[in-house]
Design a protein that fits this description.
By secondary structure, the chain is mostly helical. The protein is about 75% helix and about 0% strand. α2 runs antiparallel to α4 and α4 runs antiparallel to α6. The longest helix is centred in the N-terminal third of the chain and has 27 residues.
Length: about 130
């Protein structure tokens, strides 16, 4: 069994949060760009998928200090499955139910999914 050298847990959480900020910025920039041509839910899905690929490589390198592999890359979307469901439902509720507008909806909806994403991400990457 191979032991992976990882950062101490508090440092991992801090790095996870920093990568999350970068990933959120990437996602949001893509979302706003795609929103000019696409309906908000399609813009959300495409921006989410593109930023998730970038997130995988950032987390592998900086958060967990592990070699990215195809296996981990293919499992990594599981880390975002709960995030995707929570944020997509949140965007829908904020835009269609609360009628609060689509511009900031993804940022508000994503906050609730962060703890779940960290736990699953750590399980897959380490």
């Amino acid at each position: 069994m191979r032991t992976v050298m990882t950062r101490p847990m508090p440092r991992q959480i801090a790095t996870f949060a920093l990568v999350g900020v970068v990933n959120t910025g990437t996602y949001y920039g893509l979302y706003l760009l795609l929103l000019m041509w696409l309906p908000y839910l399609l813009a959300h899905v495409l921006a989410f998928l593109l930023s998730m690929a970038g997130s995988f490589f950032l987390h592998a390198r900086f958060t967990y200090r592990t070699r990215p592999t195809w296996r981990k890359f293919l499992l990594f979307p599981l880390t975002n499955a709960a995030n995707f469901v929570i944020t997509t439902a949140g965007v829908y509720v904020i835009v269609d139910v609360l009628q609060a507008g689509s511009r900031f909806a993804p940022l508000l909806a994503s906050a609730a999914a962060i703890p779940v994403t960290f736990v699953v991400s750590r399980w897959i990457m380490v």
